[in-house]
């Protein structure tokens, strides 16, 4: 025999992969060119750990089944069957593709993969390419738009919008000029550092302002004490007149009316927030195109059919997002789905605003997860046009009549 590594002991324990052991025995037989059935069976039997479950099984096995190597393999597989592999579904791949992210801070940096130095955006591309290949490029072609929307602004500026082909999109990421990428990423980092310094300075100034207010309050208290005659207290309901000609006022605490205690909303646990984050993209956000609007109308139909006209949106029941509107959790207005203003100052007419279910869903997501998409979301402006409003009026009518 050649000097080849002998397989390890097999015990038959639950945490052992029996099929790997069988493959190691086959490999040993091939490398050592064992020809006879008896030699193969003897090698196998000598690798069963003495006194183990596997050794006991071999002892009790019928001798007639210990002659041919193929019979031994069949009996072994019957006793320790192949572990069933869980295959990912199309929906699983879709969720993984949409959840894949690259942080803006990593752009233009280098990472080591399997001992090889590469760019962070190329490593992201490799992961995305692998998922697309496993899921099928044709089956997931509709996700190209959403994946690009989830990427940092710097990457979006260096790629073509509106692509629906994975090959072209992945090639564009591959062909990004690293010098331009690093320059743009450095600009974003410097801007962020400047904003951070400004926010810190603003916080410090606010603290100084509060100190000044506290000093002024103490000074006013001292002034009132000086104007109070000796032998009197500030709580006296009819204080004697002082040299100060101004009328004094008294502050009387109001007795609050009895009311039932307000119900406090229990905050989500970290596990519940993780589940909410994973469900954000369960209903894909569609582009503002004819095809996207058609898909959106079908999403609304399915939602209202399942949950009814009065279905309540909550952390476990997300709602479709209007095509072309701002990415969720990106600092958007909850009423119209655009950037640049808050809901209290929304200029959109009520008839053109988002469906009430979408307003609630967006507010829940921001309340629990914060605006975590603000850094890489495309800024969406509100455009009020008669034709645009009429189109959305029709869309809302169709969605709510299901």
TrEMBL record:
One of its GO terms (biological process) is mRNA processing. Residues 227-249 are annotated as: Disordered. Residues 227-236 have a biased composition (Low complexity). One of its GO terms (molecular function) is zinc ion binding. Residues 333-347 form the CCHC-type domain. Keywords: Metal-binding, mRNA processing, Zinc, Zinc-finger. It comes from the Eukaryota. This is CCHC-type domain-containing protein. It comes from Suillus luteus UH-Slu-Lm8-n1. The lineage of its organism: Eukaryota, Fungi, Dikarya, Basidiomycota, Agaricomycotina.
């Amino acid at each position: 025999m050649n000097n080849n590594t002998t397989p390890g002991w097999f015990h038959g324990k639950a945490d052992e992969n029996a099929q790997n052991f069988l493959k190691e025995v086959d490999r040993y037989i091939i490398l050592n060119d064992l020809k006879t059935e008896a030699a193969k069976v003897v090698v196998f039997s000598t690798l069963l750990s003495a006194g183990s479950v596997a050794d006991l099984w071999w002892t009790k096995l019928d001798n007639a089944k210990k002659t041919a190597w193929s019979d031994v393999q069949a009996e072994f597989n019957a006793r320790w069957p192949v572990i069933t592999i869980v295959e990912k579904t199309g929906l699983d791949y879709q969720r993984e593709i949409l959840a894949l992210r690259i942080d803006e801070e990593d752009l233009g940096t280098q990472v080591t993969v399997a001992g090889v130095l590469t760019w962070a955006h190329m490593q992201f591309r490799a992961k995305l390419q692998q998922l697309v290949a496993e899921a099928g490029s044709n089956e997931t072609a509709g996700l190209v738009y959403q994946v690009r929307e989830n990427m940092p602004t710097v990457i979006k500026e260096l790629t073509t919008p509106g692509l629906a082909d994975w090959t072209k999109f992945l090639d564009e990421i591959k062909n990004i000029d690293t010098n331009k990428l690093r320059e743009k990423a450095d600009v974003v980092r410097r801007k962020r550092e400047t904003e951070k310094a400004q926010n810190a300075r603003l916080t410090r100034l606010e603290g100084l302002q509060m100190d000044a207010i506290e000093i002024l309050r103490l000074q006013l208290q001292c002034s009132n004490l000086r104007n109070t005659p000796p032998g009197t207290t500030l709580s006296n309901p009819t204080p004697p007149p002082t040299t100060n000609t101004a009328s004094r006022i008294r502050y009387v605490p109001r007795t609050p009316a009895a009311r039932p205690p307000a119900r406090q909303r229990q905050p989500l646990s970290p596990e519940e927030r993780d589940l909410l984050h994973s469900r954000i993209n369960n209903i894909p956000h569609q582009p503002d195109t004819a095809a996207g609007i058609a898909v959106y109308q079908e999403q609304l139909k399915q939602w209202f059919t399942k949950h009814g006209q009065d279905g309540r949106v909550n952390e476990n029941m997300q709602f479709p997002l209007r095509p072309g509107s701002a990415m969720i959790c990106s600092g958007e207005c909850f009423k119209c789905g655009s950037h640049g203003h808050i809901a209290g100052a929304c200029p959109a007419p009520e008839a053109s605003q988002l469906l009430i279910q979408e307003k609630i869903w967006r507010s829940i997501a921001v309340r629990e997860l914060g605006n975590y998409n603000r850094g890489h979301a495309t800024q969406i402006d509100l455009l009020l046009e008669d034709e645009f409003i009429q189109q959305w009026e029709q869309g809302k009518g169709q969605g709510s009549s299901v």
